[in-house]
Amino acid sequence: MKKNLLILLLLALYQPVVSQSTPCKTGGSSSCLSLKDRGEIVITPLNKLDCKKEKAHLYAKFPKVTSYANYVFKEIGACTATDMDPFHGQLKFTYCLPKTCQEIRITIFDFNDPYFKTESGSIHKEMYLMAFDTTPASAIIGAHAATSINHFDKEIIVSPRFGSMGGSSDIVGYLAYDSNQYLISIEIDDDHKKFKKPSQVAQFIGGYVTQIKL
Fold first, then answer.
1. Is 5 in a helix, a strand, or coil?
2. Please, which of 92, 127, 145, 190 could form a disulfide with 77 given CB 3.0 to 4.6 Å?
3. Tell me, what's the pLDDT at 3?
4. Domain count of the chain?
5. Would residue 171 count as lying in a domain?
6. At residue 138, what are phi and psi to the nearest 5 degrees?
7. How far apart are CA 181 and CA 198, in angstroms?
8. In this structure, are residues 155 and 184 in contact, taking their beta carbons and an 8 Å threshold?
9. Tell me: the pLDDT tens digits for 6-27?
10. In 42-72, which positions are buried (b, 16+ CB within 10 angstroms) versus exposed (e)?
11. Burial environment of residue 7 by CB neighbours within 10 A (0 to 12, 13 to 18, 19 or more)
């Protein structure tokens, strides 16, 4: 069971690596537009979202900043209002670096959502929380304590490139767990291997993390 959860954990944390059917090409239609082409950058208002009733409490927790470290707001995702919602108990803000394919994706999960009481939801929750345990699984995904941020109950920097297997993922990330309820997942595209150490990731993303209000 633990082995299966490890596989699921790796897929969940680095899903963009395996699920992107059309690779982004700088200058292509899927890349981040230049500031000139974007025009005025605004955060999508809550009343414009399909999930405004179901996920207003999650929307309120995100910093409403239009840019961070040269990345600009792109879109809000994981927002549907159907009975078959594939994004139960979560909301995602995406920022992108103009004229590139590089993104920062911030997702906040509410584990008090009824979905996480179901069998599949419980497995989903457990595989995320495994990352915070000192186990071979957390070592493989390159989990390191993010002590310099110190904003939530549990905080780690994750990337296989920092892991025991010496992986080479193009994504680095931050995970936090707070109040036995909220999980914050931040994925940072890093195709050019800018981040050599977990401490560099923590320093980069810390200014955004401290603006999240749970």
1. helix
2. 92
3. 45
4. 1
5. yes
6. -70, -30
7. 25
8. no
9. 444 554 554 433 333 345 666 5
10. eeeeeeebebeebbeebbeebbeeeebeebb
11. exposed
